[in-house]
Amino acid sequence: MMRALWTAASGMTAQQTKIDTISNNLANVNTTGFKKSRVDFQDLLYQTVKFAGTPSTAGAQVPTGIQVGHGVRTVATQRVFSQGMYQQTDNPLDVVIEGDGFFQVLLPDGGIRYTRDGAFKLDAEGRITTSDGFPIFPEILVPPEALELSIGSDGTVTVMYPGDSEPRSIGDLEIVRFVNPAGLQSAGRNLFSATAASGEPMMGRPGLDGFGTLAQNFLEMSNVQVVEEMVNMIVAQRAYESNSKAIQASDEMLQAANNLRR
């Protein structure tokens, strides 16, 4: 059997993975805080027919060898954590991180997840939560009698009480960052979980020690560029077609060999 059949088949499989990733990027073009993914490829093993440097005659060596590759594989789908565009909402519970950092989210099982989605809400108890009702961590309770809520660039959350002339602090929004954010595992619902590759979360105040600052009344949109994704889709589609042509050519060559007669 010709190697080209399996080699080209691996190329088609790899390009299918790229198309799947591009489709997910485009599907989330309007998802708040979404970070696009890219696909990294790696060539497979090589069959060495002749080693470079093999002696050919007395005092002479073969300058180059003969190696035949066996295709390609998908080695990684990497999250790209570049900053997305900002959208002004005039909603006091909408917060964007300008720079490095993630909000912490407390799950019902006690686990912590991380997100760039700052579209927060208030639940029946006055807690600041995500759209799924998961409270941020550390929890912040907004008193029911509060008239106005303000979130400073350093994460300080203040409210105005009836009859007061100065706002009162009710808590601080803390964020975390990672040595390798690309190592985070996507958990769906705009949430990420830490892994051994991402490193341990480093907690800090916004605006200090390399952490980003916060901006109220804004949301971070997806960092997906539609034109870029469409170009990548065309390239992947053409590469898929080229590999299918290689399979067709190999099949025709095998057919010609099978039709040989003495």
Topology of helices and strands:
Elements: H1 3-27, E1 37-43, E2 46-50, E3 55-57, E4 60-61, E5 66-69, E6 72-79, E7 86-88, E8 95-98, E9 102-106, E10 112-115, E11 121-122, E12 128-129, E13 148-151, E14 156-160, E15 168-172, E16 175-177, E17 185-188, E18 191-193, E19 202-204, E20 213-216, E21 218-220, H2 226-258
Helix pairs in contact: 1-2
Can you describe this structure?
With 262 residues, the protein is of the alpha+beta class. The protein has two domains: 114 residues, no CATH class; 135 residues, no CATH class. 22% of the residues lie in helices and 32% in strands. The protein has a four-stranded antiparallel beta sheet, with no helix packed on it. Strands 13-14-15 form a three-stranded antiparallel beta sheet, with no helix packed on it. A hairpin with a 7-residue loop joins strand 14 and strand 15. Helix 1 runs antiparallel to helix 2.
Identify the notable features of this structure and list them briefly:
about 260 residues; alpha+beta; 2 domains; four-stranded antiparallel sheet; three-stranded antiparallel sheet; 2 helices; elongated
Strand order of the largest sheet: 10-9-16-19
Task: Give the class from helix and strand content and strand pairing.
Answer: alpha+beta
Spans of at least 5 consecutive residues with low confidence: none
Tally of separate helices: 2
